[in-house]
Specification:
Helix content of chain A: 40-55%
Strand content of chain A: under 5%
Largest interface: A-B, 76 and 83 residues
Largest sheet of chain A: 2 strands, antiparallel
Order of helices and strands of chain B: HHHHHHHHHHHHHHHHHHHHHHHHHHHHH
CATH topology of one domain in chain B: Na+/H+ antiporter like fold
Number of domains of chain A: 2
Strand content of chain B: under 5%
CATH topology of the largest domain in chain A: Recoverin, domain 1
Number of helices of chain A: 9
Structural class of chain A: mainly alpha
CATH superfamily of the largest domain in chain A: EF-hand
CATH class of one domain in chain B: Mainly Alpha
Radius of gyration of chain B: 31 Å
Shape of chain A: globular
CATH architecture of one domain in chain B: Up-down Bundle
Helix content of chain B: 55-70%
Radius of gyration of chain A: 19 Å
Distance between the termini of chain A: 38 Å
Oligomer: heterodimer
Structural class of chain B: mainly alpha
CATH architecture of the largest domain in chain A: Orthogonal Bundle
Number of helices of chain B: 29
Chain lengths: 219, 788
Amino acid sequence: MGAKQTRAEKYQDLMDKTGFSPEQIKNLHTRFQQLSDNEETISREDLEKIPALANNPIRKQIIEAFFDKRNQHQNEVGAFQEIGFEQFLMVMSHFRPPTLKTTEEEKEAMRKEKLRFLFNMHDTDNDGTITLEEYRKVVEELLKKSGAIGLEAAKAIADAAMLEVASTNVPHMAPEDFYEGITFEHFEQILKGLEMESRMHIRFLDVDTTTMRCGKSKS
Amino acid sequence: LQPLGGAAGLMCFSLLCVCRGEVPPKPTGVVTIVPPIKPDNGPQAYPEAEKANLPVFTMNYPRIQIPFEITLWMLLASFAKIGFHVYHKITIWVPESCLLISIGLIVGAIMHSVHEEPPAVLTSNVFFLYMLPPIVLWFAVVGTLWNSVGIGMSLFAICQIEAFGVQDINLQENLLFASIISAVDPVAVLNVFEDVNVNEQLYIVVFGECLFNDAVTVVLYNMFSFVAEMPVVEPVDVFLGVARFFVVGLGGMGFGILFGFVAAFTTRFTSKVREIEPLFIFMYSYLAYLVAELFSISSIMAIVTCALTMKYYVEENVSQRSCTTIRHVVKMLGAISETLIFFFLGVVTITTEHEWNWGYILFTLLFAFVWRGLGVLVLTQIINPFRTIPFNLKDQFGLAYGGLRGAISFALAFTLPDNIGRKQLFVTATIAIILFTVFLQGISIRPLIEFINVRRTNRNLGTINVEIHCRLMEHTIAGIEDLCGQWSHFYWKDKFMKFNNRILRRILIRDSRAESSIVALYKKLELQNAMEILDTVSGDISAAPSIVSLYEEKKSSAKPKKKFLAADLRNMHDILSKNMYKIRQRTVAYTNKHALPNDSQTKEILIRRHASIRRSLRPGSFQSTMVPKSHKYFSLPPGQSLDLKFPPGRLSYTDDHETLSEVAYPTRRSRSSRPARSSSRAMMPLRRLDTLTEAPSVDAVGDGGRTDHGVSRTDSSYSDSHAAPRRHINSSDDQDSGSVDNLRNNHHEAQEEEEQPSSSSPVWAAEPRDGTTRNPLLRRPQWNPKKK
């Protein structure tokens, strides 16, 4: 049947791009349909309607990440207004876990991908650096739920964190120097030791480890 | 070492004497008073009682015999332990268990040569009731089962072979024996793993395995010993056995949780009776153990789960000191028991009569290895697909090779019921396998692990950034999962945490929202100062990191210590600084279970930090001519002293490091060994501070005054990822690998749980303040250098 053929082809294409297996793509497609009320695209409002997300302190950032063009790996910047299934999948693909078969370089690439994702979450103005204000914003959001912590505290923590980055990456800053912001390299540097594989992945249903494609090299 | 040797010698002698069981007339080293009347040794001349004078000095040895012997044995073993650590090199390469066994062997040899009996202390009851609980408990039900059954079956098969002459051992007895030797003792292995920094996953698995391993073994042992006495085994018995197994295991856990909750609930009300808080903890744990023994369910599981549960909730309720006490006592008891067991092992090896059967014993060894290896392989194959980080072969090897037998096996073997015909053989075989694994594998595992280069873990993750991003990642993952409707363990963690927060914590924890007044005051002062800074210099500096707020971020839920007695700033500082020392322990992900927390590093950092502050506080520097340029480093306009806000007593404006140290930390002891060193070795911010020493930096004064315990650490150890699970009130996630941490932390008996609330914060307080006011985060144009 024609429709089936194109779907299979479409899936093949998606599989190549994102590395998911057909079963996983199908599941995610179902979910996509749910979220979008069976339309072709999802908008921000659709995602904001998800009740489970309501408690998440960084809800906005997460939702925004889906609409961020940088996460599509096509070297564009800016934001979508609505995303289609392919973009949805691309964002999800950042969270695939490595398998037994993933090679070291691929693991490295995946790690970089994930770091990039986080970086993009911080860097809302697309200028390639995380400035103090941007960082502060994230910290504030994170601490929002803790109640007693005030804005000043969040600011202070963000300051401390920035300082940390500055001191690790630019150790001999002269007193007059101004640390512009965290670049991606610095970001990588400070999170160097962090084991992301165990933290930043999602076990997608129908995981079929033997047929799962290993991640493509993306940077 | 001289007095040590002498004491040991004397003790040995006393031991020998007391073990004789009779009352030594007078120990040779002791001066005695001649009683005024000769004891009536000879036949009595007169049948009626003579007038006896009141004896001034009597001895009644039998009264104290048992505790006396026990104490002496413990002392002896402890002396041995002291002796080991004199030579550091030994302890690196030879696990302590080996050394203890060796000493035991020596003592046993001594005793044997004088034909003594080993102390009768190690009866089954004593072991199970008194010694087993304190032993640190660590594993995998399936693994042990697998091992037991596998080894049992194989040995039974072997027994059929006539050549070995052990045909009389039936299946049940074989299974019983197999269950004894399946118990893996983690002590040596975990120490090696710690030293080598193996990756977390492996460590956790080994730890967890040992944790539940013991429970399973004891369960199996009890089951099989019951079965062994039955002449005929029917299928229904097997079924019952399996059912009993579950009852025992799950029942143990249930009891443990129950007692844990009760303990938590009790401690909710102990704010007025702080001194006996540790007592509650210990008594409840012990009670859990005893009650479980009462019902013949797994007491080890009971006590372990009780401890885990308690740790989580009770931590929040008890005071700082109670926590410390508990931690230390548990460690001590654990060390004692372990020491004693291995020691006895050595002694008993020599002194009992052995029945040696080459075939049986060698095959036992062989099967133990084989089955363990197989077990590990099979089990990892089964669970690897479900794990996100699969165990590779190296991990598996480490796991398999780390199967040392130890204390549990020994105790169980020793207490086999006597109606088992071949008891001696079993005992011998057990001892043989223990000795073999402990010595051979124990000594060789370290070089092997390093050789095959097992995946290591990186421990320097104590930065704020890492912390923030861990949190960020967790939230992200939880969010994405919600978004795509797929759940993993985060979801369940979320759910549980919600339930926990809403219901459990309300019941079990004293109201923790109310902050300690001290902490609140501190925060207020901080904020006040922050406001001042903002007002005087520029509007865009949030240069007032509240120490406490940073702490709170770390904990994400205030864990106030309500035991603060003093209300004035000095005591506050004292307490905070005292607490801050211990936070350092967090960086040590797996604290050595044999070592108590070591404060020296923290102190050193503090001292260095101190030194740099002192330098920048030099009296003349306040009127420096470099004011305009370094003005940006001011938090207050020059000339205005912070003495208004803080009692000047904190800072002595001399260059005497000692004075400042003494003033600031009257409770600390040995600091004099560290004169002001160049802080070049210290953390980055410290260095930066030094480069700014010319900055008159009233700010530094402020820092010094307020946060003189603050140490700038870029990689300080906030990261709770390795440390105690964090509680929070509102966030729905928190514990990264919470349950896992629980296990590990329990293993270390909550050593690294540092509940000091403000510990992390002082560190950072100074730092950002220096930094932000100093430089990099703010554009220069925003500073108005002309402002004075």
